[in-house]
Design goal:
- With 182 residues, the chain is α+β, with helices and mostly antiparallel strands.
- The chain has a single domain, classed as Porin (Beta Barrel), CATH 2.40.160.
- The protein has an 8-stranded antiparallel β-barrel.
Length: 182
């Protein structure tokens, strides 16, 4: 009896996974896309900046039948400066691993990576300063099945940047974005 139940469960699992693996393997594993949304400053950055915005361009690679993919991104985040006008901006160039969790329909995933962040500030008088710093991000999202020709998603990620060469503190922020990948 236990063998029959076990065999039935294995067969049902294969039947559920096989169409998804076939559909994924027949599609192009390379993707290009973009996202935009609201960026919320936290920690030290939250004390100096207002809520801002994020725009991101991405190139991805999702190997067929593998739950982990790669996404290279260039992102721009801008926040209003709370003191003295102007703005704070953070451009990010990151490499990220994307781990898709098993699901049908809405597909949740975990994303995280590291890279170069360019932190800049412009004051109300036109003075500007910037520096390159190391940072990382981690978060999650959900893929929304709105079309068979492209992939839409909603995600949120915690970003942390060591400013001032690691001796100046950290800036952290959380962009919440909506995006599309082809």
């Amino acid at each position: 009896m236990n063998r029959i139940i076990f065999s039935t469960l294995v067969a049902a699992g294969i039947a559920a996974v096989a169409p998804a693996a076939r559909a994924q393997s027949s599609s192009n594993p390379f993707q290009i896309g973009g996202a935009a949304g609201i960026a919320f400053p936290t920690g030290d950055l939250g004390n100096a900046a207002n809520t801002g915005y994020n725009v991101t361009l991405a190139v991805g690679y999702n190997p067929p039948a593998a739950p982990v993919g790669l996404r290279l991104e260039g992102a721009y985040n801008e926040f209003g400066n709370q003191v003295g006008g102007g703005n704070l901006n953070i451009a990010a160039f990151t490499a990220n691993a994307v781990f898709a969790l098993p699901a049908s329909g809405f597909t949740p995933y975990i994303i995280g990576g590291a890279g170069l962040y360019r932190v800049g500030a412009n004051d109300a008088f036109g003075n500007a300063a910037s520096e390159n710093d190391f940072g990382f991000n981690v978060g999650g999202g959900v893929k929304l099945p709105l079309s068979s020709s492209f992939e839409t998603f909603v995600e949120a990620r915690y970003n942390r940047v060591s400013v001032g060469g690691g001796n100046g503190g950290t800036f952290s922020f959380i962009p919440v974005t909506v995006g599309i990948m082809w």
